[in-house]
Amino acid sequence: MIADNSIKDFIDVLASDEPTPGGGGASALVAAIGTALGNMVGSLTEGKLKYYEVEDEIEEMIDKAEQLEQDFLELMDEDEKAFLPLMEAYKLPHKTELETAKRTAVLIAAKSQACQPPLKIMRKCCEAIDLCGRFAEIGNKSAVSDAGVGVLFCKAALQGASLNIYINTKSLEDEEYAAKLNEEADRMIAEYTAKADEIYESVLAQLK
Question: In CATH, what class is 2-207?
Fold first, then answer.
């Protein structure tokens, strides 16, 4: 897994001329970090007598956050694997009519495939934003700032992943399918950037 590499290794290859990892993988990593920050609030709440009434919910949220963190790390690899066929498709010869037709068909399939991991990342970012918001609401108040940072990271990851969808749908020959993907991405951006902003403002109000 990409996630098994050191942070420095990941940053170095991200900054290089290698085609992967790119914005999708980086977004997934940022989302994992954001979710972990929310989860830290849960860990600092669990077992505290002051928060006894929310203990059961906190434990469930911690489990969910841990699963999301793992999902995001796995999506880093999934995004890379989905992008590589697209890079190979662009290298296919297209001098003859037959070659061009074959290349076009492969590109259509590869672009469609490349949209799937960032779409999954976006969906899970929505879950993570909800989770960070709840951690901020009922979690340990001494760590509420971490939930606020977490929700900002997840918002950035949501927006980042959307760009990886839009760059591919822009050139998809299947306009109906492209519109369907864009519609879902648009809906998540509209709903969850606003929700993330509300959570951030709520955290900020608790701190100032």
Answer: mainly alpha
